[in-house]
Amino acid sequence: MEGLMGFVRSPATTPIVRRSLFYASKSKKNSWLRAKLNAENDPLLQAATSAASLRFQEMHRPEPLFVDPYAGCLVHPDVQMDLKECSHQYCLATKFIDDKLLSTVNHIDGLKQIVLLTDGMDTRPYRLNWPTSTVIFDISSERIFKKSAEKLQGVGAKVPRNCLFLHVPLESSDIQHSLYAKGFNGNQPSIWAIQGLPVMTLANFKEILLVASSLAMSGCLFLGELPAWLAETEIGTKPSTEKWTNKLFMSNGFRVDLVGYDDVAKSLGKEESPGEYKNILFVAEQLQFSDHQMETWRRELQRVEEEGDEEGFEEL
To answer: Where exactly are the transmembrane stretches of this chain (predicted)?
Structure first.
């Protein structure tokens, strides 16, 4: 598997490439990356299938948080059903992200861009009621995405009419360029959501933030879940987690708020499942301009300066 490539912040027209840390280097790859993977020993596939299983179980509750009609084709036929009254934190986060995405995108005029950083089995492109002119980019493992795409096509899954769904392999040597090549426009609004994307190290997530910071316009949202261990602190020590998270996001131009799973549960009239859940739910807002916005501003400034020089020359 080729390593993902990231970017040093630079004008959109001339990106500078640097080696990514999304995956270990070729000399230090984990053994499972070298081995022939299957359903029993592929950790990415297992994680994606487990998440789909939680969505499948949630759909069969008497009063589900959401309905995922496509989760069933992604899980094992003999999946164990656990229909306890309390809602799993993953499902609470899924509902929260769903609602936030739709409420935000429905207030955007014209072209709407959604960037989903996923486990490869995210069904949001198919199950959510996206408005017209929505372009959805899914960044995920190519092998997992291909497996799920075949199954989803087999059950007739389709994105809403007048919407476009594009996949960007996580293994791409240049994610930012790949998004541009697929038609992403840094001068148009976008919403970024992460849930399920395999984040191996803190450096991985920093690169995700760097890419989002480079491409997202000022005022755009980045939300979702990130592993709590990234904060290098216990999940229960919220003040320390908040301080760490604020510093991390602000260093990339985002103002971030942490969202409590218990607060989401209460707002939905549900009870949160007991036990530890090692993720952090967040919503962040981009405070700085995207690379494309900066380039547009630079060109406009240059044009004004050139026109001023011409006027001054004519006066002479």
So the answer is: none
pLDDT (tens digit, 9 = 90+) per residue, 261-304? 999 999 999 999 988 898 999 999 999 999 888 888 788 888 78
Q: Is 292 helix (H, G, I), strand (E, B) or coil?
A: helix
Contact, 159 vs 125, CB < 8 A? Answer: yes
Residue (of 220, 217, 242) closest to 231 by Cα position: 242
- With vertex at residue 119, the alpha carbon angle to CA 224 and CA 146, rounded to the nearest 5 degrees, is 145
CB count in 10 Å sphere of residue 53: 19
Tell me which residue has tokens 């759909």.
59
84's tokens = 């306890």
pTM of this prediction? Answer: 0.83
Give SS3 for 205.
helix
- Sequence-distant (6+) residues with CB within 8 A of 31 are none
Which stretches of the chain drop beneath a pLDDT of 50? 1-35, 233-235, 313
